[in-house]
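Build the 3D complex.
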Amino acid sequence: MAVDLSMPVLVVDDYNTMIRIIRNLLKQIGFEDIDDAADGSAALNKMREKRYGLVISDWNMEPMTGYELLKEVRADPGLSKTPFIMVTAESKTENVIAAKKAGVNNYIVKPFNAQTLQSKIQAVFGD
Amino acid sequence: MARVKTQQLESLIECLHDKRREDVSLADVLSLAEITAQSLQVFFETMDTAVYREMREIAGYIERMRGEIGALQADELKKNRIPAAGQELGAIVKATEGATNTIMECAETLMAADASDIAAYQALVQEKMVVIFEACSFQDITGQRIAKVIETLQHIETRVTRFASAVGSSKGAAFVSDDERKAAERRERLLLNGPQLDGEGIDQNTVDDLFSKPTPAKQPECSNQSSIDALFK
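Done.
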């Protein structure tokens, strides 16, 4: 399945600069419909209002973390199929395994480059 | 002193034993009182010495603690050093944020620029490159600010370690406030380990390998390279 560049993407991070970096990289890849949220609960609200084709989320946020967001999304029948990529500085094996068990589609360790982001998005969509 | 006390008590018991079947006179009562007073005097003398010694020790301890608390320079830390370190850290955040914004604005401008006019585009790239170089100068100043913060931390560490050693705090349970306990529980429950230092975390290739293999039933320890290697055997 090819990556549909017209699908809406939600970037979740509590650090504005990181949202800006990911947004610019996504634009470079060709995505145009990009929204953002500052934590898991704000993201969940947006996801219940708009259908996103991809969520790219940080892990460590307050009050709701990206890990909690992932579990909420997978537990919600209306959202459970949404592709979810974790982009985080959490680089311990236990974090990667916990995210995988919770149903994350891919995992990117910060700092990352444009090529890594693009290849993970392509991997999620089977390109 | 214990021997004297025993002798006094033996006299008291003997006296009571002799007088058990007789009427007790005032002289007997006075005699008993005298013997009792003598035996108790020894007890009080012993107690006075012990209490006095303990009070001296406590006074000495309090005196030493006053000295240690003075050496902590808590007032100076609270009024000067910690606020100054906080200001330095605030300035570091501001400087890095400012530099990042400047660099990103340059990059965004270049990304959006019209490249059809080569000469104009080249001039714009040159101009933005200079701005990026200038923005990178923040690193020198923030390095100096970080050095000052580290110096403050070392100052605090030295004094707190000395104080902890003086009060023997390592023998007791560490004090943890409710807020600290809740924060620690949240970190543990939500796996908020934070960024790892070089050699502590795993890199993107290892993450990719983990995704290409089935998830282990038992969560492995991952604090060093050998434990990570064990995941792939």
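Chain B touches chain A through 31 residues (CB under 8 Å).
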